[in-house]
Amino acid sequence: MLLAGIDIGTLTCRLLIGRVSEDGRLTEVHSDRRILRLGEGVDRDRLLRPAAVARVVETLRDWRDVINRHHVDAQIAVATSAVRNARNREEFLGRVKQEVGFEVEIISGEEEARRTLLGIRSGLPGGVSSILGLDIGGGSTEFILDRHGHIPIVHSFEIGVVRITERFLLHDPPIREELDTVREAVRIITHGARSLLGDLQNVTLVGTAGSITTLAAMAQKLTTYEPIRIHNYRLSLETIRGLEREILGRTKTQRREMPGLEAGREDVVVAGTLILRGVMETLGFSEGLVSDVGLREGMLIDLAARLKR
User: Fold this and answer.
1) Which is deepest, 122, 197, 262, 265, by most CB within 10 Å?
2) Per-residue DSSP letter, 142
3) 42 and 157 inside one domain
């Protein structure tokens, strides 16, 4: 089946068109992603701003035409943290339906994690069994513990790079007090996650989404994003600490010159780095595996499975 999926995130919107085989394997046909910041200001006033909505609707129109040209068998669009937290979400959904023709499903943090796990599992290298999936998004972060023979344990927390940046990181570059506040918030949330997840011995940390893939690109000083060099890259805590020092020593404008940093992430990369470092230190991981597949791939795998029933 040829399927299309759209992930409407707090920071980034993603399109994936792919073929899913009878045994559930996914082959990408076309993909696109754009940093649109739909969730700007949502943490403060719980409203999607008109300019942000307009950016997303314009992109969805473009993607509707792309999807139509590919003559897909089915399509799905989901929205995550920003939309589920917004008081005017029904207005947003109605506008997308009226102007673009897409029915958008708002998914919970737990459902987001379930589909993300499907995506992560589809791209793991051989020999990796028990994993802790970490999905650092714009508005929320999901912890997904999946051990062989056990039901996955999923927890979603409202701590994401846009939310953290808008709430705490108000100077450029951030001042020590702001950084200490974020580090403590991450430590508290991660301790809470650990009490819910339990024993993490013999578990591989696997990170997905833009924060960790960006850090993997920066660690390798990539001038252009190369998925083959990002996917299953092993990112060490030592490397993350070194990148953090470089990032924190620069302003947003200066960070734009750093190889591997995707345009539009020059402010939120601080929060992403602090979250990832804090999680790894608190949970005792010296390295993590980087996954270039996640929610949007899991959406298509899940959709294919439902269509077969």
Assistant:
1) 265
2) E
3) no
- CATH number for position 7: 3.30.420.40
pLDDT tens column, 48-92: 999 999 999 999 999 999 999 999 999 999 999 899 999 999 999
Q: The domain containing residue 41 runs over which residues?
A: 2-109
Q: How many domains, in total, are found in the chain?
A: 2
Residue 68 three-state SS: helix
pLDDT (tens digit, 9 = 90+) per residue, 80-100?
989 999 999 999 999 999 999
Question: Is residue 115 situated within a structural domain?
Answer: no
Q: Dump the DSSP string for 25-65.
A: -EEEEEEEEEE--TTTTHHHHS---HHHHHHHHHHHHHHHH
CB atoms within 10 A of CB 128: 14
Element (H, E) at 206: strand 204-208
Residue 51 lies in a domain: yes
Pairing of strands 2-8, 74-79: parallel
Rounded Cα gap, residues 69 and 93, in angstroms? 24
- Edge-first strand order for the sheet with 104-106 is 26-35, 12-20, 2-8, 74-79, 104-106
- CB atoms under 10 Å from CB of 1, counted, come to 15
For residues 224 and 305, give the distance between their C-alpha atoms in angstroms, rounded to a whole number: 34
Q: Kindly report, residue by residue over 15-40, the tens digit of the pLDDT.
A: 999 999 888 789 999 999 999 999 99
242-271 mean pLDDT: 94
Residues 131 and 161 grouped into a single domain: yes
**Cβ–Cβ < 8 Å for 255, 261:** yes
Closest CA to 17 of 33, 36, 4: 4
Nearest one of 152, 151, 169 to 160, comparing CA atoms:
169
Domain identity same for 96 and 128: no
Q: Is 184 left (phi over 0), alpha (psi -120 to 50) or beta?
A: alpha
